[in-house]
Amino acid sequence: MNAGAGDGMEQGAGALAEVSRGGAAAPPEQLAAQWARVRGRLQAEVGDVEWRTWLRQMTLAGIDGDEITILLPTRFLRDWIRGHYADRLQALWQAENRRVRRVDVRVGGAAESLSAPAHEASAEHSPPDTRVDPRLDVGRADMAAPLDARFTFEGFVVGKPNEFAYACARRVAEHPSSPGFNPLFLYGGVGLGKTHLMHAIGQELGRRERPCTVAYMSAEKFMYRFIAAIRAQSTMEFKEQLRSVDVLMVDDLQFLIGKDNTQEEFFHTFNALVDAGKQIVVSADKSPSDLSGLEDRLRTRLGCGMVADLHATTFELRISILEAKAARAGAVVPGKVLEFLAHKITTNVRELEGSLNRLIAHAALFGRPITLEGAQEVLHDVLRAHDRRVTIEEIQRKVAEHWNIRLADMSSARRARAVARPRQVAMYLAKQLTSRSLPEIGRKFGNRDHTTVMHAVSRVAELMEQDLEFAERVELLKRMLEG
Ligand code: ADP
Ligand code: MG
Fold first, then answer.
1. What are phi and psi for residue 277, nearest 5 degrees?
2. What is the mean pLDDT of residues 128-144?
3. 470 vs 5, more confident
4. Minimal CA–CA distance to 403: which of 470, 453, 353, 345?
5. Mutation probe of ligand 1 site: the residue of 185, 320, 350, 355 with most atoms within 8 A of C-beta
6. N or C: which end of the chain has fewer CB within 10 A?
7. pLDDT for 185-217, tens place per residue?
8. CA 444 to CA 78: how far, in whole Å?
9. Does ligand 1 have an atom closer than 6 angstroms to the CB of 321?
10. What band does 482 get if pLDDT is binned at 50, 70 and 90?
11. Per-residue pLDDT averaged across 210-228, rounded?
């Protein structure tokens, strides 16, 4: 092996090969730790959305000879995982544990799970994987989610786009509740390091001589906790628990848009803590003033402390990040490959990192050095997705040309079928070909509501099923835009 791959991976592969050669099954803790790493890596590779949609519900049944069995609760999920992730699971497992030759994906629940202690009383209520993956926060008794040990200040690569946010985060970690820095509001696009910085703050605070109590949770979790407390008639306890911390961090606050009661509760908690001189750190995908849908008074208060923006990465920063991650993994990655990745994967550091990890794992598995040609091959799926970056403006122009209408009608209020239909097609293609959200697409089409876009998308899909000629026209446009 000429390239080590990640801290856990080297360890796992080496230590375990010895144990398993004796023929005995790996001890459950070791297997559980390997499984946690496989999950962690896969999650890092695929990103949160895919993870939550498809992969989160996987549980480990156990190992039998050279075969790992993974369970999913439904046949649908099982088929999906078999169809889309079987190879990755197998590769990741093999990198962890040389004994593994095959990964079998089956339908099954917690009851059949070999690694689950049969007597565990709460097994019915908590998802089975909490026993296996300590990084997952579901079902834990205490309030806050655990911090990811990899997300430290030392592990954060600083460059122009993020230096201000980084400095603010450091400042809060060193002197929580300083005037002017409370609340600290971090915002920026997906995968630019918001969560990383929050965990780093938490970790730093935990290391202090007199550690303070830090609660970190996603806004989603905040909501679930709150709802659970209402159901259990224990809202007082919920409030007290939250208000007893020194530092409260709530991640991805945009999740609270449209959840009025939870917002209200958060607002009160927020005020109580700030009034008591406690530090709040919040992240969101937009600045407080752009978070329309949050109550005005909450937005005003959120903007009262320090607001720090994580800007899109530059090529230089992406290179630095890749270099740091490769060095950390102890892997030798040629500069050409790093440049190639930094050119191709520009929006999301998580994907950048995932791609690099994939290259490293692949090289380690096959005992080959990492090369540019190899990288193009291994990452062809990721790269294809990034090559196809079409803008909404291009889509509008092409569609308007095709139907011979004015470009301005893409944004106009005219509802005549002759312009409304092409406009719908353009919305449909925008959804298909770009990573824009429905509200973002709506905005580009004369500030239309996201429900209008949603309707357009389903209407066009419906028409394409009914009308072959129409379907061909749309497909043709799509191919033209992709090519
Ligand atoms: P966000 O919360 O903004 O969506 P994350 O904090 O989850 O993004 O970051 C996504 C991934 O990218 C994480 O694995 C994180 O460690 C990594 N990452 C992002 N920015 C940096 C950076 N500047 N240096 C090192 N790693 C980074
Ligand atoms: Mg995040």
1. 75, 20
2. 36
3. 470
4. 470
5. 350
6. C
7. 999 999 999 999 999 999 999 888 777 889 999
8. 38
9. yes
10. confident
11. 89
353-380 confidence digits (pLDDT tens): 999 999 998 898 888 899 999 998 889 8
Q: Which amino acid is located at 147 in the chain?
A: L
Query: Is the distance from the beta carbon of residue 204 to the nearest atom of ligand 1 less than 6 Å?
Result: no
Residue whose CA is closest, atom 6 of ligand 1?
193
> What is the distance in A from the centroid of ligand 2 to the CA of 344?
22
DSSP string of 331-342, one letter each residue: ----HHHHHHHH
- What pLDDT was estimated at residue 107? 84
Ligand 1 midpoint to CA 46 (Å): 14
- Mutational pocket test of ligand 1: of 7, 154, 185, 192, the residue with most ligand atoms within 8 Å of the beta carbon: 192
Q: Cβ-count burial of 473 within 10 angstroms (0-12 exposed, 13-18 middle, 19+ buried)?
A: middle
User: Tell me, what amino acid is at 420?
Assistant: A
Tokens of 349: 């550091």
